[in-house]
Predict the structure.
Amino acid sequence: MKFILRMLVSAAALFGVAYLSNGALLLVDAFWPAAVIAAVVLAVVNALIKPVVQFFAFPVTVLSLGLFSLVISALMLYIVAALVPGVQTTGFLQTVVASIIISIVSAVGGKLVDSGSDRG
């Protein structure tokens, strides 16, 4: 149940970034199915591809004092946009900003989902 709620929070973050920025940061056609599928694909990409990229980019990340991790997050969003029809990126800096916002909202929403389910 937690997984489904976390995916819905991520989908809402994706759709929210696209909607609130009027497509300036990210373009998502609709919440269902584009944003929901994009959230699932983003979770898979972050679980499988991102650790490998982070491993190989570790020296660059250290030299940039961690800022290169923002580029890696944006790259993962580019991969999602390439795989999911209905999701488009609008530019590199916009994608970096969108990935930052999505990460923050998903983290906060995930913590709220986890704390809400512990009250049982």
Q: What stands out?
A: The longest helix spans residues 92-117.
